[in-house]
Amino acid sequence: MNKKLCILILSGCALATAHAETSSGHFKPGNAASAHLPGKISSPQVRSHIALIFDEQTQRPLFNKNAEMVAPIASITKLMTAMVVLDAQLPMDEAVSVSEDDSGTRKRARSKLKIGMSFTRSELLKMALMASENRAALALAKSYPGGTAAAVAAMNAKARELGMQNTMFYDPTGLNRDNVSTAHDLAKMVAAAQNYTLIHQYSTASTLSVDGLNGRAMRFSNTNPLVRSTSWDIGVSKTGYISEAGLCLVMAAKINQRPVIIVLLNSWGKHTRVGDANRIKRWMEKVIAREQRA
Question: Catalytic: 132?
Answer without folding.
Answer: yes
